[in-house]
Design goal:
alpha/beta, TIM Barrel, 9% strand, 8 helices, two-stranded parallel ribbon, 52% helix, 8 strands, 6-stranded parallel beta sheet, rod-shaped, 340 residues
């Protein structure tokens, strides 16, 4: 009986040992597979992160390349437009000389040489209202340009001072010192005049503003604090790039030491490059009830009719008894309603 019992116990122990051995082997195999699976998962995660980083880097590179290409294209377009305007001016001048020469060479003996018919000039109306209580602030955006010397000559001829909201005019920046030398106010518009760039953030706007401020100072020695936003404070195009940015910018200007001005009379020359001079003149005669009148015009190479209209605009204001002034931080503000 005892031997049989011992034999049974030994069999049980052997079975238990076999079971334990099988369980140990199973655990070892499972652990190895789990470890391998974990390593594979980690490798897959690293590969995914690397792929995402590579994709982001490639996208950033492509975006930078596209931005650089667009900037270069804009610069080329601006250069082409300027050169085209200068060439058109030269062609026009040559045509005048040719017409004059033909008129002179075709004159018969005893006849008076013919002269080209002068272009009709807009005249001041016979009845002009009394506007002596108003002060006119003529302002010119987007200069200096090839037109700046003409504008300065007309202003000097009539003894009128104006305010020039300037940008980076490249080779025409040399005219900035002429603006100051003639006693006009030089003010800040934008260095790049690139809406997408300057209205992308408050930081981008004030960086651009500092750039044009430094350029004006380097060219003239004047540190201006008079500003006009590209498109005016009421522009809505900025909404495409940063919703609400104009509300935030206008709220910060005074704290940063700047006085910004919009306008309450527009010549309309922003609507195109060939607006008839008569249209510009009539637009400038539509005055608000406010005594401070800020007139918007543009000093750009393509604005030939603005230069042609300027004498009649000044003559009308003078005939109406208006005073003329230049903008400063102490001038009564003319602000439009902010729409973004």
């Amino acid at each position: 009986m005892t031997k049989k019992r011992i034999r049974i116990e030994r069999i049980i122990l052997l079975v238990l040992a076999a079971v334990i051995l099988c369980l140990s082997i199973a655990l070892a195999v499972t652990g190895s597979k789990y470890k391998a699976l974990k390593q594979n998962s980690a490798s897959a995660s690293e590969a995914l992160v690397s792929a995402q980083q590579a994709q982001e880097s490639l996208a950033g590179q492509k975006q930078q390349e596209a931005s650089s290409y667009q900037d270069a294209l804009n610069e080329q377009s601006a250069a082409y437009e300027s050169e085209k305007n200068e060439l058109n001016d030269k062609i026009s001048e040559l045509n005048k000389q040719i017409a004059l020469k033909k008129a002179t060479t075709t004159t018969k003996p005893g006849e008076t040489p013919a002269t080209p018919n002068p272009q009709p000039q807009p005249t001041v109306p016979s009845k002009v209202p009394d506007l002596s209580a108003k002060t006119i602030y003529l302002t010119f955006d987007d200069g200096p340009s090839s037109r700046t010397p003409e504008v300065l000559r007309i202003l000097k001829q009539y003894g009128v001072k104006a305010t020039f909201f300037v940008i980076n005019g490249g080779k025409y920046n040399k005219y900035m010192k002429d603006i100051v030398a003639d006693g006009h106010t030089i003010a800040l518009h934008s260095y790049s005049h690139d809406y997408k760039k300057i209205y992308s953030s408050e930081t981008a706007y004030f960086q651009d503003l500092q750039q044009i401020s430094d350029l004006v100072y380097n060219e003239t020695g004047v540190r201006s604090n008079v500003v006009r936003f590209p498109g005016g404070s009421s522009n809505t195009v900025s909404r495409k790039y940063n919703k609400g940015i104009m509300s935030r910018l206008t709220a910060q200007m005074a704290d940063k030491g700047y006085a910004y001005f919009d306008w309450n009379v527009s010549s309309g020359d922003a609507n195109g490059n060939s607006i008839p001079a008569a249209t510009l003149i009539n637009n400038c005669r539509k005055l608000p009830s406010k005594q401070t009148v800020v007139v918007l015009m543009h000093d750009a190479g393509a604005k030939k009719t603005t230069v042609a209209a300027l004498p009649a605009i000044i003559e009308y204001y003078k005939a109406a008894g208006c005073k003329f002034g230049t903008l400063s931080a102490s001038t009564p503000t003319v602000h439009q309603r902010v729409l973004n």
